[in-house]
Design a protein that fits this description.
The chain is an alpha+beta fold. Helices cover 39% and strands 12% of the residues. The strands form three sheets. The chain has a five-stranded antiparallel beta sheet, sandwiched between helices. Strands 6-9 form a two-stranded antiparallel sheet. Strand 1 and strand 2 form a beta hairpin.
Length: 362
């Protein structure tokens, strides 16, 4: 799971092809794409370090994107290229915009790891701010926010069996397993006791709501994991970073989107827990209440427990940040911004407890 905070490798192209050297990638692409022009290619790291590695590969034949696992230590169930490739391929004919997949390579490839190739989708990935002169009016910014909700609703209303994903996960008991998984991850990576986090975890376990739906879950859905149309604000041309996707409780995606969301009226607790730049706090973007209402209207789902899911998202993000900091301290990760990961743990916990305290008593 990528957090996206202050990561220079995610903000610019690096002419460093570690993990995807051109003399290895070129022959692979020439073979599988049946075009010798790929033999002479340029490989640029688009993003990497905390999540799967993404490279732009360019040659006289065109440009594609290559994805592979990170070079350092990874969790046993994370960074599964086959799962990413499978869900992208399955969603190609749905209302969910995804890049077209081109090839899946296994761990026996010359890269030494599984990988896949997909088309490069042109548009804006907005991590720290909107591009200059793009969506310059409140109406256009609102259109972007509404499109984010509409695409999420489209994903959650796809019939998994109809697109060949009936066995993509185990929806029953999804949140209980999520709580166990992230609790174990906390125990494996914590550097000191944090009673507030354990209190948040215990309250989440005690108040877990009955599951109200089952769907394909993205697992990390937010503005900067989408590609916006180059010149039509309000149109999303691709959803990226499917490494956490599965079948599960759709409200985990909505809760995460809300946890990453910012609005101008945020109080000190929510401002301190901002893990990405507050792009959506600009005038015109929908409020969290607007996001929830639009999602409910598009899906017909009962959103009454959404605060619990947002609190869970803050808990999960706190554990993820602790894991990033722990692996960085052990020298297993490339990039920067890891001190910020450690600093964010406590504010994220505070935000989760704040959301739970605001919920009506069960």
């Amino acid at each position: 799971m990528s957090t996206g905070f202050n990561d220079p490798t995610a903000q610019r192209l690096e002419r460093i092809a570690t993990g995807a050297e051109p003399d290895v990638v070129g022959p692979i692409l020439a073979d599988v794409l049946h075009d010798p022009r790929w033999l002479a290619c340029d490989v640029a790291l688009v993003s990497g370090g905390k999540s799967n590695l993404t490279y732009r590969v360019a040659s006289d034949a065109g440009e594609v994107i290559l994805r592979r696992p990170p070079l350092g230590h990874i969790l046993p169930t994370a960074h599964d290229m086959v799962r990413e490739y499978r869900v992208l391929t399955a969603l190609a004919e749905t209302a969910v915009p995804v890049p077209r997949t081109l090839y899946l390579g296994d761990g026996g490839s010359p890269l030494g790891a599984s990988f896949y190739i997909m088309e490069r989708v042109l548009g804006h990935v907005c991590r720290n701010e909107l591009p200059p002169a793009y969506a310059e009016t409140p109406e256009r910014r609102r259109a972007i926010g509404e499109a984010l909700v509409d695409v999420l609703a489209a994903l959650h209303t796809v019939d998994p069996a109809a697109v060949g994903l009936a066995e993509f996960g185990r929806p029953a008991g999804f949140m209980e397993r999520q709580l166990r998984r992230w609790s174990k991850q906390w125990e494996a990576t914590k550097v000191e006791e944090l009673p507030a986090l354990e209190s948040l975890r215990d309250e989440l376990v005690r108040t877990v709501p009955a599951q109200r739906g089952e769907s394909i879950v993205h697992g990390d859905y937010r503005l900067d994991n989408t590609v916006l149309h180059p010149n039509r604000p309000g149109t999303i041309v691709a959803v990226l970073d499917w490494e956490m996707s599965t079948l599960g409780d759709p409200f985990t995606d909505l809760g995460a989107l809300l946890a990453f969301w910012s609005e101008e009226a945020d109080d000190e607790v929510l401002m301190a827990a901002r893990i990405v730049a507050p792009v959506t706090s600009a005038s015109g973007f929908p409020s969290r209440a607007d996001v929830i209402a639009r999602y409910a209207a598009r899906t017909g789902m009962d959103v009454s427990a959404v605060d619990w899911y947002q609190a869970f998202a803050f808990f999960k993000l706190a554990v993820v940040c602790q894991g990033i900091a722990a692996r960085a301290a052990g020298g297993a990760m490339v990039g920067s911004g890891f001190e910020e990961a450690q600093r964010l743990v406590a504010p994220l916990v505070d935000a989760g407890r704040y959301l739970l305290s605001a919920r009506p008593a069960a």
